[in-house]
Amino acid sequence: MAGTTAEKRRRGASVASEAMKQAILDAATDVFAESGYRAGSVRTIAEKVGITDAGVLHHFGSKNALLAAVLEWRDERVAPLLPDPRTSGVETFVGLLRVAEYIPTEPGIARLHCTLLAESTDPTHPAHEFFVKRYDRTRGELVDAFRNAATQRRLKPGIDPELAASATLAVMDGLQLQWLLRPDAVDIRKALVAHFSALVELPEE
């Protein structure tokens, strides 16, 4: 019985720890989105959660590690909306339209992306390498998607997959920024549909 009680306590402590880590991630997302990484302090994050600075660092080790966890968590939220990029053509673009629908439901995620992306153009920023690798990977996946769309006979004539991939990244980032500035004036999904329709034949909805 004692062993069972101890096991229950361990499980309870583990659940509480995971709940606290999630609360810290939520708070860090807000702080980094509002103030950026450099101006956003661990103290402000701790105050939002109601713990000490040491409590935050107990769960994540360092501010850099917390930033990495926030970025990973952000990508995990979006990943289920996208198909396997290795086997997809136009399905990739349909998945990106689902992401466009998701963005307005989580404005903090879009704000975090735009804020950290701008900051991380500085090579000394801790998220610089993350965004460089992320853009290289995403650009490559989009190139493959456009090439696969050609195989599916859905790529419009004269479209260069590499140029189309770079333009798509620019459009998606630009639409998020415009929407954050004027959410009443920008329909991200509608604008993205227009962009993709100029490049590929999308499936009928």
Question: What can you tell me about this protein's structure?
Answer:
This protein has 205 residues and is mostly helical. The longest helix is centred in the N-terminal third of the chain and has 38 residues, at 2-39. The chain is built from 9 helices and no strands. It has helices at 2-39, 42-49, 53-60, 63-78, 90-102, 107-119, 128-151, 161-181, 188-197.
CA radius of gyration:
20 Å
Query: What can be said about the biggest beta sheet?
Result: none
Strands, count? 0
> From the helix content, strand content and strand pairing, which structural class follows?
mainly alpha
| Integer average pLDDT | 90
What best-fitting shape do the alpha-carbon axes yield? elongated
Uncertain regions spanning at least 5 consecutive residues: none
Share of residues in helices = over 70%
Tell me the series of helices and strands, N- to C-terminal.
Answer: HHHHHHHHH
CATH superfamily of the largest domain: Tetracycline Repressor, domain 2
What oligomeric arrangement do these chains adopt?
single chain
Distance between the termini: 58 Å
